[in-house]
Amino acid sequence: MSNMVQAIRMALHVGEERHGVTDVFGEDVGPPLGGAFTATQGLKTAWNSPLDERGVVGTSIGLGLAGCRNVAEIQFCDYAFNTIDLLKLAGMQHWVSNGDWNCPITIMTPVGSGIRGSIYHSHSFDATATHIPGFKIAVPSTPRDAYGLLLSCIVDPNPCFFLVPKALMRVRSLPGEEIPGEPDDDRKLSKMIDAPLGERSNWKPQWPDTPDHFVPFGEGRTVRPGRDLTVVSYGRTLPLCVKAAESLAPEGIDAEVIDLRSLYPYDWERIAQSVRRTGRVLYVNEDTEITNFGEHLIRRTVEELFYELAAPPRLLAGAHLPGIGLADSLEMASVPQLPSITESIRSLAKVEP
Amino acid sequence: MSTSLRPVRTPPASELSPDLLLQMHSLMVKARVLEERLIQMYKQGDGYFWIGGPGEEAFNVPLGLLIHKGQGPQYDYCHFHYRQSGTLLAMGTDPVDAMRQMKNTATDPYSGGRNFVGHFSIREWNVVPVSSPIEVQYSMAPGTAIANKRAGGRGITIVTGGDAGTAEGDFSTCLIWSSRPANPLPILMIVTNNKWGISTHYQGQHGEKRISDRGKAFGIESKTIDGNDPEVAYRELSAAMEYVRTERKPFLLEAVVSRLYGHSSASGANRLNDEADCIVGFERRLEERGLLTRQQMDGLRATFAAELLAAHKQVKEEPQPDPKSIHDHVFSERDLVRGDS
Description:
The complex is a heterodimer of chains A (353) and B (341).
Chain A: H1 4-18, E1 21-26, E2 46-48, H2 53-65, E3 69-73, H3 84-96, E4 105-111, H4 126-129, E5 136-138, H5 143-155, E6 160-165, H6 186-193, E7 221-224, E8 229-233, H7 237-248, E9 255-259, E10 262-264, H8 268-278, E11 281-288, H9 293-305, E12 314-318, H10 328-334, H11 338-350
Parallel strand pairs in A: 1-2, 1-3, 3-4, 4-6, 5-6, 8-9, 8-11, 11-12
Antiparallel strand pairs in A: 5-10, 7-9
Helix pairs in contact in A: 1-5, 7-11
Chain B: H1 18-43, H2 57-66, E1 77-79, H3 85-91, H4 95-102, H5 136-151, E2 157-162, H6 169-178, E3 187-193, E4 196-197, E5 200-201, E6 221-226, H7 230-247, E7 251-256, H8 278-288, H9 294-316
Parallel strand pairs in B: 1-2, 2-3, 3-7, 6-7
Antiparallel strand pairs in B: 4-5
């Protein structure tokens, strides 16, 4: 059973073999390293770029305009902030040309906290990404969704962000959530597609025969059905929300958990149907709380579902700080963790109208 | 990549035929009259903003004539900036379309009334959308150049910008990415040096002797030319393009040009008399060689002026974009650049 990094690698391989991916590139993306998180090992179109994020994004746009489907990696989203104007341009090529051009590119970048990455390996990018119209935005929380969302990004004729929660890179699929065609045995899969340590210049991966599997944009997933309230999350905080919901069941609190999976387009219908039933909703993500994507969802909740609410909608997000401090105590206090998510669900469930 | 700068062959002046000289002259005059009409449109309230390239015709027209235009990586990709109406006219556009963009009409074929004048976009000819941020096109150029090189033909990527923009990191990006030993790229990098960045003069901002010298550190063939002489520009562009097409390596060409109406309408768009006018110099030469008389040249200008005045009147009557269209084309349903129709 694969972890998320292996799932990404397999999707990129399928993209190369069957969906016309011509270039997977970025800093340290090609051999020998195959990506800072090893997500691009063994890929035939992977190559190393100069240490130049603007060049990475600009070249991705140029390749896309020339009809070359490509996946460009920014090694950490923290280093994408100097490319915002180029990302804006990628997002507008179709619109500004009044429908003449399109730009089929995928910008892949690890996001969020969870590896004690200090200030510049812990930033989130979801709020920024949702401020760049023209992009579709995917955020997986399981290996199978990573596989299916990345393939959807690759075949889409528009620019796509594939935001990878770095805290979940090594998390394995739960039973029943395998990628079709992958070996059951972790060690067997590792031998097939993980590059050996040290000298690897003659290494060739043995790719398992995994079929196309697309997770469509705008289709969330109800990970845990529940009666009393709705929790909407994505990325690193999603599995924590599920865990918190499970832990509250013995207290008689039955929380529904929705994994949004894509932030644009997003599955409003799924959220609305759930909230109409439960009357209570908590949005959870770890980006800074001011002008947060969850605030947009609260705005729609208030405007469209106000008279069906039993409690004020809530947002649990990262503190409005310039960065996330290195010390464990600082990171834990800066972004939502299991205790704060559990307490937020509990208190929302207890609000009396 | 060679680290020594090999001389690039420059064909002698006699190789340019009288027909070509007359064609270039006609296009230069048409481009100038178009820019002057666009400025008039701005001053008469038929457009919110003007920016363009009056003064750069002697360089921009030969460039347009030499581009291998077409769609896809076998042809040249064009990453232009916003001073190149002369190039687009020489490629074969109808000047009325620039006026439509000036008046932001629904009929504007480049952006449907969404973008400023001079912000061309023609997928059929590989002209990628011109954007207002300075120099970003230099970061995109390596991408199309990779596609050109992979396609294996003679198609190249051409990127243009001004002198002030070379201070942006994107200019360095293009120098670095086009000269990587792992994959040198067929990019013709053009800097039209008008010696100004809006109101800031070149001399106070550039420590390098010539902008083209920056290519030397990367082993990139480089040259600075007189962009106000259309014969020099044609010959030098021919030679530089031939080098890029055959060697599949980059070339940095700096062309010294004039800026005859200032930066844009934001600085008044009034005629400045302290800059050399490339059309005046070229017309003197054509007269001396007996190729055209003053009367013929005046007649040509008057004809274009009348045509474009009529086009101005026509464009004024054309519809503005439907406000309901703002949401059109945010996302594409089709992969147009990969052949979907």
